[in-house]
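Entry 0007
Protein: DUF3581 domain-containing protein
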Amino acid sequence: MFLDDFYQTRSNATQLPSFVVQPEQASRFAKRVAGDFNPLHNPDSKRFCVPGDLLFSISLAQLGLAKYISVKFVGMLSDNRELNFVPDQDHSYLIQDSDAKTFLSLTHQNTLSQDPQIIAPFIEAYVAFSGESFPNLLVPIMAEHNIMINPARPMVMYESMAVHFEQTPTANMRLEYAGYTIDSQAKRAQVTLKFSILDGNNLLGYGNKVMLLSGLREYDHEAMQQVCDDYATIKSNYAES
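Output (structure tokens):
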């Protein structure tokens, strides 16, 4: 699977292999696969962290696609430590390091496919959708609700995601944005981005991605546009390098 370029597995005595993500691998995944140019995913960033979508993708590569999958991101992974899938409760796992620090909790119920030819297209479709979160999806939502993140220190956190399949997944899956809900209180807001999983016009399932916005203030078009322009410049410079 194409994902093999972005992590290394380590054999051990557990049911699932442990794995390691190098900062350079995490950064390449964010930019080349997810289209995510958040500076937090740059290896030289003081606040570097591995993209949550990479940990999610590795989970699917190891476990397969299931009728119901949910992920909650618990901690930020900032270095190339060895990680393990630790069984938690029925149909659930924790991704932890050797000190039992948890970075992700995962529910995985009723496996549907462990075929890499089915799993890989879904991973690519989901992370491409996920990479559109900022600025393409979130900025219009902020404008509509007259709120915005701090332009001097934009903080958008990936909290969780969930997927429900109602039909068998296929190799021709695509994701389509299906609207949002927002819960805004004082300086914080929780935005749930919804999507449909389609093969042609056939609905295979649905899901959502939950984002936390902090440091909110009244929307300022010029300030937010500058943030978007700076982001576009980073993306353009990477494409030209």
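Curator remark: The chain has a mean pLDDT of 93. The first helix runs from residue 23 to 33.
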